[in-house]
Amino acid sequence: MAKAYLKIDIDTGKENEVKAALKKISGVKSADFVTGTQDLLASIEGKNYEEIVTKTLSEVRKVKGIKKTITDFVFEWA
Asked: pTM (2 decimals)?
């Protein structure tokens, strides 16, 4: 299982639309408004990192109202 956190900047007034659209995308496990530099933090999971990049993030990029995203992949050390 691969995981990533997606930090998202949203156009003003589009916050609720973007959050609702993200929650419909397969692989997006949560989407929460946060304080700080970005507007929203989404938790993403996939069977591997390639699936996250090619499937989930490609769908996220289609969501209207997103200005910018930053993806942080989760690496767990055993």
From this structure: 0.90
